[in-house]
């Protein structure tokens, strides 16, 4: 059955404003069912979690349902909720680094978002550990397995790797990198923020020790999610309040959880599960976009053989911010910048200005792509 993009779009009130949204990699638009779930939770009788009153039980059920839903969605073990992927990564970097010693090594990559670089770099500095950098191919945008694995040693403690570059869309072979890292007894911490909206996630098959993502990138509310095996989480001792529970995964969640956002996350996952044919739809539109940009002579940086429906490009003679502004004036939302993948942007030679990024999502249709191409053509 063909992907019914018109039926999908009908669930997104934000589209009524008329813009063509290619800004999903920075935060997707939200379907009505997610907004309904958030509103209903906020306006229902609710209290701190417990088992005595109906309000307590409602909170308990919302949390349990969100954990179960995310665990099934990611094919993962325990689920830890946080304010954002960045906050969770800082928390876990601080926790893991308690066991690091001078001379230990941490591997990060040039293609990652800074949220999967800077927490590890700063934790390594505090522990006097060594940071080793894995480069990617500037021409193809590929991150070869050996670029990471050649840096491994018996002193490697963590390999921080993206499942999909938020700037280029590149999808490294995480499973193969994880296999090599585990042979050295290193943990593998995977940034799945840009991967999760586009690809069915299987954390177990990926062999990630930690996998983090953000519901607001896959049609949900602003929140962070970390998945890890409960047995692994049991070995970690985060800083926490004295009266708070020491149970896993709650010991990693600092303070009361945002119940309304958890309800919205559950609704977002359920909506995503109903999008049969999404990958094929997004791939087809990506090909349409790329071929159109190539015909216009636009410089494209996203060239990896395996990547998300994300295209990073620039227009010769025009500052990326100017392209962004002029596209926006025509109702085409395709932002410009480094999008916090600052090491990636610099490695590409784009500096801190970056380039223009167009991301295709569940609600993108052919007319959106056509609008973007026509708007770019008018820039020439």
UniProtKB/TrEMBL annotation:
Highest taxon, organism lineage: Bacteria
SUPFAM superfamilies referenced in this protein's UniProt entry, alphabetically: PLP-dependent transferases
Residue ranges occupied by any Aminotransferase class V domain in the UniProt entry: 22-372
One Pfam family of this chain: Aminotran_5
InterPro entries to which the protein is assigned, alphabetical: Aminotrans_V_dom, Cys_dSase-rel, PyrdxlP-dep_Trfase, PyrdxlP-dep_Trfase_major, PyrdxlP-dep_Trfase_small
NCBIfam families for this protein: am_tr_V_VC1184 (TIGR01976)
Name assigned to this protein: Cysteine desulfurase-like protein
Organism: Lentzea alba
